Amino acid sequence: KQWYQRRVRAETVVLPAGPIDMPHSMEPQLRQLGLPTRLKDGVVVLDVEHTVCTAGKALTTQQAHILKHLGNCMAEFQVSLVGHWTDGKYTAMMDTTMDTEM
């Protein structure tokens, strides 16, 4: 059994051709990751439309880095409040004896 799990993207991410809102210093990194970019007057420009990832397929390391640079994360975080402490007293918010999926 592997210690990691391959992450599968739930949606397809396509970048349209044109300017990308990123610092000009990021352009070489984006090009190294496989994006067809160039600098035009100090602005990072994507030369052609680019599909970063496809729904249902495992992400490659390069795809994950591109999504991270774009601020497009796939993590989902949930919290279930079961109780709280106030003035030294514990108050239960829900029955913790129930078998709930978190």
Observed structural traits:
three-stranded antiparallel beta sheet; alpha+beta; two-stranded antiparallel sheet; 15% helix; 2 helices; 102 residues
Question: What would you note in describing this structure?
Answer:
With 102 residues, this protein is of the alpha+beta class. The chain has helices at 27-32, 61-69; strands at 13-15, 18-19, 37-40, 43-46, 50-53, 83-86, 89-92. The protein has two helices and seven strands, in the order ββαβββαββ. β6 (83-86) and β7 form a beta hairpin. The longest helix has 9 residues, at 61-69. The radius of gyration is 21 Å and the shape is elongated. 8% of the residues are buried.
Quick structural overview:
The protein is of the alpha+beta class and 102 residues long.
Annotate the secondary structure layout.
Blueprint: E1 13-15, E2 18-19, H1 27-32, E3 37-40, E4 43-46, E5 50-53, H2 61-69, E6 83-86, E7 89-92
Antiparallel strand pairs: 1-5, 2-4, 3-4, 6-7
